[in-house]
Amino acid sequence: MAHVTAIELQSLRHLLGEETLGMAKLGTYAQNCQDPQLKSQFQKLLNECQQEGQKLLQILG
């Protein structure tokens, strides 16, 4: 991992927490949604959140 300051590390952890919360909410929405188009959108957004979360985890190393 590249050298990061304490403030940058704190920001990365905060962003990861936000992505994790987003994944939990979008997963619940997708699971409970009855409309196929809306369900598909929630799943797409969930996948995007998961990808961003993986990127943040890679940065944190």
TrEMBL record:
Gene3D superfamilies: 1.20.1260.10. It comes from the Bacteria. This is Spore coat protein. The lineage of its organism: Bacteria, Bacillati, Bacillota, Limnochordia, Limnochordales.
